[in-house]
Amino acid sequence: MYEFFYWYRIKSNYRDLEFLDKDIDDGQFKDFYKNYFKLTISFYEALKKMINNLSKMRLSKEIL
């Protein structure tokens, strides 16, 4: 899952930019980035939970 965000950034910044030539509806563009934002927040929350669970076992406290 970590690599998804990395490869998405690489792909959108350096490769396969032909999607910019497509006629993409503003609503679709907005929905895509709203969903991408939700995915990012969900990934952060899952990672935070995992880190805190491990820190509770090792340090007896949450670190995030």
Q: How would you describe what is shown here?
A:
- The protein has helices at 2-14, 26-59.
- The chain has 64 residues and is mainly alpha-helical.
- It has a domain at 25-64.
- The two termini are 20 Å apart.
Key terms:
64 residues; mainly alpha; 2 helices; elongated
How is the biggest beta sheet arranged?
Answer: none
Strand percentage = under 5%
Termini distance?
20 Å
C-alpha Rg (nearest Å): 17 Å
The helix fraction, in percent, is over 70%
**Mean pLDDT over the full residue set:** 84
* Residue windows where pLDDT falls under 50 for at least 5 positions: none
Per DSSP E runs of 2 or more residues, the count of β-strands stands at 0
What can be said about this structure in brief?
Helices cover 73% and strands 0% of the residues.
